[in-house]
């Protein structure tokens, strides 16, 4: 069965276009591995092949080294009685079909406020220095090593109500030590991921990698998630509506049992638009948007044009492979379908979208719609 018919132009898969999309959303490692096994000749023929291959190799090596080197400091912390909880990519990478698919730039860990100074002293004794400090974490760096974000709050108290209480709740509900660190309970871990996405959506934007984290995690741990408790947390944090939009999108990608807990899909399409626009253009500042478009080589005759997209819809025929790695890796194609359905008219194989003032207004309008979902 050919899963790529909708991605072909004159019988050839447009992998260069897909590479640009994947790179922006930090999922290029996953797809190089996938395409190299299934479309090797086509992949090798494109102009960005060597760049894609080299970046994938570097990413994979860095991810491996980052995690292996983190084991040393995690072991020292454990030996000194400091309870450490893995956060974000350091934990969710194990839910991906292959853990190196999840790109990471640092390691995020959580410690209780009572053990923060002990943990900080150990990092400093091991040669780390403080790069910056906020009201929720301390960034630690070491020459020749990698960056750690040492969290003592899961969210910024200046941004989220109930932040400190939620952090304490997560620590109290931990499910014990597993291999290298303590684990947060699945409901609390999912709440943190949703809150992390919500914060970035409010302030700037996110790539689809963050949505894939949610999808892969739920696919792996859904049996242990209490959606009633999850919704209670989202209410207390003031992000129930945006949380519903995130869960609705995840459920569209890979349906999961919400255990009779209603998820409101009202703002899902707006969420998709905001993720797509702001992961590409960065900021709702009009000048910055235009400058980024020019830097991407999309300025012509004084007009700013959006990148051409050669796909109008994607029809996945994977009903018999719901539990396979193939299905999990193909899920992002469904997202592309939703993007295109919301932006382009049906029946069009290629459409140039002019980046006009009207379109800029739409981008900012969508962002403001999402911001208004926060109970702030």
List the helices and strands and how they pair.
Blueprint: E1 8-9, E2 12-13, H1 15-24, H2 28-38, H3 40-45, H4 49-79, E3 85-86, H5 88-92, E4 107-110, H6 116-125, E5 129-133, E6 137-141, E7 148-151, H7 163-172, E8 177-178, E9 181-182, H8 186-203, H9 208-221, H10 227-237, H11 240-253, H12 268-281, H13 286-295, E10 299-300, E11 303-304, H14 325-343, H15 357-371
Parallel strand pairs: 4-7
Antiparallel strand pairs: 1-2, 3-4, 5-6, 6-7, 8-9, 10-11
Number of helices: 15
The total count of strands amounts to: 11
- The helix-strand sequence is EEHHHHEHEHEEEHEEHHHHHHEEHH
The radius of gyration computed from the alpha-carbon positions, rounded to a whole number of angstroms, is: 21 Å
Terminal Cα separation, in Å?
A: 49 Å
Name of the top-level CATH class: Alpha Beta
Could you characterize the architecture of this molecule?
By secondary structure, the chain is an alpha+beta fold. The protein is 53% helix and 9% strand. The protein has a 5-stranded mixed beta sheet with strand order 3-4-7-6-5. A two-stranded antiparallel ribbon has the order 1-2. The protein has a two-stranded antiparallel ribbon with strand order 8-9. Mean pLDDT is 76; it is low at 1-7, 281-327 and 333-359.
């Amino acid at each position: 069965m050919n899963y790529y018919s909708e991605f072909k132009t004159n019988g050839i898969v447009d992998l260069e276009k897909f590479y640009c999309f994947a790179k922006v959303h930090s999922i290029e490692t996953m797809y190089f591995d996938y395409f190299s096994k299934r479309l090797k000749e086509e992949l090798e023929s494109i102009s960005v092949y060597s760049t894609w291959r080299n970046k994938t190799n570097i990413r994979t090596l860095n991810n491996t080294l980052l995690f292996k080197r983190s084991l040393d400091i995690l072991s020292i912390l454990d030996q000194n009685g400091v309870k450490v909880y893995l956060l974000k990519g350091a934990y969710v990478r194990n839910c991906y079909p292959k853990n190196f698919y999840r790109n990471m730039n640092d390691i995020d860990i959580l410690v209780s406020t009572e053990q923060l100074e002990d943990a900080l002293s150990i990092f400093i004794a091991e040669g780390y220095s403080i790069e910056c400090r906020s009201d929720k974490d301390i960034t630690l760096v070491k020459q020749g090593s990698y960056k750690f974000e040492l969290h003592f709050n899961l969210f910024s108290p200046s941004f989220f109500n109930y932040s400190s209480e939620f952090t304490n709740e997560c620590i109290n509900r931990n499910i014990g030590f597993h291999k290298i660190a303590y684990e947060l309970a699945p409901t609390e871990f999912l709440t943190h991921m949703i809150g992390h996405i919500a914060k970035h959506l409010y302030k700037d934007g996110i790539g689809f990698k963050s949505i894939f984290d949610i999808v892969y995690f739920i696919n792996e741990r859904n049996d242990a998630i209490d959606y009633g408790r999850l919704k209670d947390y989202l209410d207390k944090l003031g992000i129930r509506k945006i949380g519903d939009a995130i869960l609705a999108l995840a459920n569209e990608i890979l349906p999961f049992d919400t255990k009779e807990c209603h998820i409101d899909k009202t703002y899902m399409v707006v969420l998709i638009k905001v993720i797509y626009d702001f992961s590409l253009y960065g900021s709702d500042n009009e000048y910055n948007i235009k400058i980024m478009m020019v830097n991407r080589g999309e300025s012509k005759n004084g007009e700013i044009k959006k990148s051409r997209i050669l796909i109008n819809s994607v029809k996945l025929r994977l009903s018999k492979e719901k539990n396979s790695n193939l299905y999990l890796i193909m899920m992002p194609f469904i997202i592309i379908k939703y993007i295109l359905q919301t932006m382009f008219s049906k029946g069009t194989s290629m459409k140039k979208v002019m980046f006009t003032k009207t379109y800029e207004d739409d981008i900012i309008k969508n962002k403001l719609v999402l911001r208004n979902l926060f109970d702030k």
